[in-house]
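Lab manual, section 2.4: Encoding a predicted structure.

Procedure: take the sequence of the chain (267 residues), apply the prediction step described in section 2.3, and record the output as structure tokens. A sample record is shown.
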Amino acid sequence: MAGQWKLKHLSLKVVEPVPSDIEIARSQKPKQISDLAKEIGILFSELEQYGNTKAKVSLEILERLKGAPDGKYVLVAGMTPTPLGEGKSTTTIGLCQAIGSQLNKNSFACVRQPSQGPTFGVKGGAAGGGFSQVIPMEEFNLHLTGDIHAVTAANNLLAAQIDARMFHEATQSDADLYKRLVPTVKGKRHFSNIQMSRLRNLEIDKTDPAQLTTEEISKFVRLEIDPETITWQRVIDTNDRFLRKITIGQSPTEKGHSRDVVTSQMF
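Recorded output:
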């Protein structure tokens, strides 16, 4: 990527009056991401494509280009928030376009993946606007490469684990919990690596599950989580105001173990 890129700019047809953002976005055919990568010197092996217009770049490129000179970093910020946004993304994309097409300098625009909350609210998407926007606009504003959804799923898995653990500790004896946590497989029981780490933290210097005393088993199987101290919240990538505060555990199968929780929006 050292030296001047052999970048072929897409033609721009400026019309008056300026059409809507989505009309502008759909009027331009995006360049194939593989062609763009070739033009700016990214190797095919360093590209992880998500269709024809999106891709991730492997961090291995940093090792290959570690001897290349550093570029300049321009930060676009704002301090006057409005319900419709401040124009940071539009300014960022516009600057990148101008530096690349008018000054003939290698330039990248680095913007965050939009959240679906603002996208479906009054603010709208975060792809920029007018003739200075990311295309395909719909793909960028919605799922992109799915990273927000992956983080959402991982976050909510941890939240579910916390509540499941409290439920099992409240409804089972120490012996039953121990059987679940250290099951007998093909006639043998053994601690996993993470369980051995927990034993060390509890200062229990034993490796055979059969050697733990009743008191040690109780210390091992119970986390004794206080619901009032839980700060890990469930999240959703939608501005759903009716999920901001909810009560979980109302099903009869949860045996009365309910609590109020807050759901946050992903950004």
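Check your result against the sample. Strands lie at 47-49, 55-57, 128-129, 132-133, 234-236, 245-248, 259-265.
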